[in-house]
Design goal:
By secondary structure, the protein is α/β, with parallel strands linked by helices. 39% of the residues lie in helices and 27% in strands. The chain has a single domain, classed as 2-Layer Sandwich (Transcription Regulator spoIIAA).
Length: 124
């Protein structure tokens, strides 16, 4: 398994960790995806996922707050990579975050896995 990791420094929030595991791009998102957090990472996240043009995972295990802007950000990245033959899968949603995805029916748009390892296995 090939691993390559690099923190993506973002303005005003914790860095977003980006790893390449084999042919899968794994992006670990920060704890708060509020307006400030989304503004700091949205363009770079979309760019990373779109430029990768393949398999991507958003590791949300550290996320404990999502605003509606975060849902839009993730959906925009998903919709950008799908026509290129790629996918953005979500991993490690905390129970309160999973509930938001369920209530907004975003759980029908994304493939969601309990942890990053399960998401990685799903791509094999």
């Amino acid at each position: 398994m090939l691993r390559c990791a690099a923190p993506l420094m973002t303005k005003g929030v914790l860095p977003v960790n980006v790893e390449q595991i084999d042919d899968v791009l794994v992006i670990t998102l920060p704890a708060r995806l509020d307006a400030v957090g989304v503004a700091a990472i949205e363009v770079k996240l979309n760019e990373l996922v779109t430029n990768h043009k393949g398999k991507a995972i958003a590791d949300m295990s550290q996320v404990n707050f999502v605003a509606s802007l975060a849902l839009r950000m993730l959906l925009t990245s998903l919709k950008a990579v799908q026509p290129l033959g790629g996918d953005l899968r979500l991993a490690g949603l905390q129970p309160q975050i999973a509930e938001i995805f369920r209530k907004s029916r975003f759980d029908t748009l994304f493939k969601i896995y309990p942890d990053r390892e399960s998401a990685l296995v799903s791509y094999r």
